[in-house]
# Entry
Amino acid sequence: YTWSFSKGFSTETKDPTTEPTVTKTFTAGGNYTVKCLVSMTVDKLEYNATVMSYVNVVQKISGFDIECSKTPIATEKVIEVGYIYSSGNDVTVTEKVDSNVIKTYKGSPKYTKITKSFSRQGLHNISVTVKNLVSESTKTCFVDAQEPIKTESIKVVFSKYDGFILVNGSLNFTVFGFTGKNVSGKLVTYSDANKETVAEKVLIQNETCVSKIDCNRLHGTLIFHKAGKLQVNANLYNPVSSVTLNILEVLVMEKVASDVQGSLISEAVSLGQPSEIILLIQEDIDIADCSVDYGTKVDAGDKLNAKFGKNTLSTQFKEVGDYNVTLKCETKKK
# Structure
């Protein structure tokens, strides 16, 4: 008799008296057709009969792996978790998230993905089970879902600011009312003119952090070493998001002399309109001993009647041009 197998196997002729059975090793899964042709001669007449059957070869699952994101992902963000099995047939695939079955299907060797988003922050367990009649394999990985920073109720408070601050002066800032996990940040000051970063200061979490409200509170102190108009921003970030808050524009003034502390600041003004000039005069200098000189284009003699500390002087320019405005104070102390 002669044995034949489908899918590329060669035929084999056997003597039934010595080899009544045949052994065949299948290297790949699938359905195979097996035929046995029986031949015999009787009275010089040849008789043939064919017996046919089918064999379903099931291959063990191998090369199975799953891959989750190694970095935290934002809640509500749709992610993809990929898995692959390189061999195995007639398999059933079961996908689970946090022990809940989300999908079951008949599969074949391939690379595929689980698409999922999470409304709850924390570690989420993702598992995939692949099984058939001869084997079963389960792979698991974890996704760290974190809440991004939300600023709907955010607030920023800072120490008293009177419209100006002296060089080397400082302001305390506290940022609170935000939500999110593992939030940190820093205060950044930059020049409003060319966006040059002037200073940075790390924001520190509340040392008495015992609740979520306390933990979502950051504070820091900025010292201003450069005169001019400086913008203060708070940059908040966590592993899944970042937020920039424009907090305050700070006017920083320099000291004029060791015994007279004063500054002038003014911007471009319209012709014939009052121009407000901010005066900062040391408190131990009598305001009556100070005067302002606008040069030759404006008559002198403007009187300073404001109190000590922050003062403003309003004058009206009648000619277009640049003015050299000088604050003069007697240096004698009261």
Q: What stands out?
A: Residues 91 and 131 are 5 Å apart (CA to CA). The chain has one helix and 25 strands. Residues 257-265, 298-310 have pLDDT under 50 and may be disordered.
